[in-house]
Amino acid sequence: MFWSELADGDLDASAQEFATRLAMGTLAHLDEVDERIRSRAEHWRISRMALVDRNLLRLAVYEFLHEATPRTVTINEALEIARRFSTWEATQFINGILDAIKRDLDRDLPEPESNAAADVEDDDDAA
Fold it and tell me: Is the pLDDT higher at 123 or at 85?
């Protein structure tokens, strides 16, 4: 409904599909996502976080867990949105929580190497 009623029409279909998948997936995995946030948001209850900050964290953590986007890219995108729609302090808060969760995941669930990195290693072997 959102896309037909409120979207401006300039968003391409793949971006629209990704945004919808991100939002719906976050809602479907909210308990899992919130538990990850709680584990790193010391002295903060999720319900007390500003709405924009809380939802940016949720979307990013879902993306960490269930999408192929590199985690650093996810953090950068979340921070860009925070800079536009939240405060400077909130941007630092979001960065700290996402970076801590990223470190946890890098330790427990390392990201697969990108094809570009594999290609560079192959080139080194051939030399």
Answer: 85
Q: Residue 23: which residues within 8 A CB-CB, separation 6 or more? A: 59
For the residues 34-42, what does the mean pLDDT come to? 96
Task: Say yes or no to pLDDT of 110 above 90.
Answer: no
Task: Write down the pLDDT at residue 114.
Answer: 52
pLDDT the model gives residue 16: 87
Q: What is the Cβ-side half-sphere exposure of residue 63, based on CA atoms within 13 angstroms?
A: 22
Q: What CA–CA distance (Å, rounded) separates 8 from 89?
A: 30
Topology of domain 13-111 in CATH is N-utilizing Substance Protein B Homolog; Chain A (1.10.940)
Domain boundaries, the chain: 13-111
